[in-house]
Specification:
Number of helices: 9
CATH architecture of the largest domain: 2-Layer Sandwich
Shape: elongated
Oligomer: single chain
Strand content: 25-35%
Radius of gyration: 22 Å
């Protein structure tokens, strides 16, 4: 059983909990997610099943879209509603919609974001949230600069293509956010509160898109619990995954070479290799350089990338 299963994650379980339930329901050990959602968050959670787990990194690197509810006037240590308030609520007047939109300009485009201390990022091999919880247990939640800053994950560059205000009702702000992978909407909520000078935290989050996968492809987890065969029917086969990548059909000899991890030249493809080989091999991490490699029957054999030898592709991920 191989492919992609898009779950509409409910609030409550962790992403790992969802993976464990699908493993049990499908009887398949090889199941993984392609980007965590916080337990309280809902929405699109793509899972890879069977041999498709080898394609997880191509899905996790893609952009995301969210509908976020932000509570203005109170910051928390976890940057969301699960955390402990950091001080009393703001007593002054809340900013106008126009003032908030101006403040959001600082987060439109590419900028350096500090991930939350309570996150899955690693610090010296340990999950950041484990370190933060240990600090809290030892009474260091409001610790000194030297103890806290040393324990924060490394800041990372992120890109937000769009932030749109959907609604502002009293202290509740609703946003629509299109962003790069690795962007924390919790951190956006916290940083917006700091920029406005009133504090803020994430009150609710729903992921509406991951890459080109949306809620229209998603299956509710409770529905699969009731009818496990629904997951099998909803499984997207590997041949239909990563549809935004260019596709090349290999000759029988090309299939043989790809399966054995050997570089592929123009003679190993049926057609359409010319422009693919002109990309610079030095930019292998760019998604635009990856190519889906099919056999004559339309089965996805491998994902190719520019080889060190100019004019050749290397099977970076082999599925068979």
């Amino acid at each position: 059983m191989d492919g992609l299963l898009v779950i509409d994650k409910p609030s409550g379980p962790t992403s790992h909990d969802v993976v464990a339930r699908i493993r049990r329901l499908l009887g398949e050990r090889r199941v993984g997610h392609t980007g965590t959602l916080d337990p309280a968050a809902t929405g699109v959670l793509p899972l890879v099943v069977g041999r498709a787990t080898r394609l997880a990194r191509f899905l996790s690197e893609r952009g995301k879209s969210y509908d976020a509810d932000i509570s203005l006037g109170v910051a928390t240590d976890t940057y969301d509603a699960e955390g402990t308030p950091l001080g009393p609520p703001c007593q002054g007047p809340l900013p106008s919609r126009e003032a908030i939109d101006r403040a959001l300009d600082a987060f439109r485009g590419t900028f350096i974001q500090q991930p939350p201390a309570y996150s899955a990022k690693k610090i010296a091999g340990r999950r950041s949230y484990r370190i933060a919880r240990a600090d809290a247990r030892h009474g260091r939640r409001d610790g000194s600069t030297t103890s806290l800053l040393r324990r924060l994950p490394e800041p990372v560059p992120v890109t937000i293509q769009r932030i749109e205000i959907l609604a502002l009702e009293a202290a509740r702000l609703s946003l629509r956010v299109d962003c790069s992978a690795g962007c924390y909407v919790r951190a956006l909520a916290h940083d917006l509160g700091e920029r406005l000078g009133i504090g803020a935290h994430l009150a609710g989050l729903r992921r509406t898109r991951s890459g080109d996968l949306t809620l229209s492809e998603a299956v509710e987890l409770d529905a699969i619990d009731r009818e496990p065969d629904l997951a099998v029917r909803a499984l997207i086969p590997p041949a239909r995954m990563l549809s935004s990548l260019p596709a090349v059909t290999l000759t029988p000899q090309g299939v043989h070479r790809a399966v054995h991890g050997q570089d592929l030249g123009p003679a190993d493809a049926e057609q359409g290799l010319g422009s693919l080989f002109r990309a610079s091999p030095s930019a292998k991490t760019s998604e635009s350089l990856f190519v889906r490699l099919f056999d004559a029957q339309g089965e996805l054999i491998a994902i190719g990338a520019p080889a060190r030898t100019p004019g050749f592709l290397h099977p970076a991920v082999v599925l068979v």
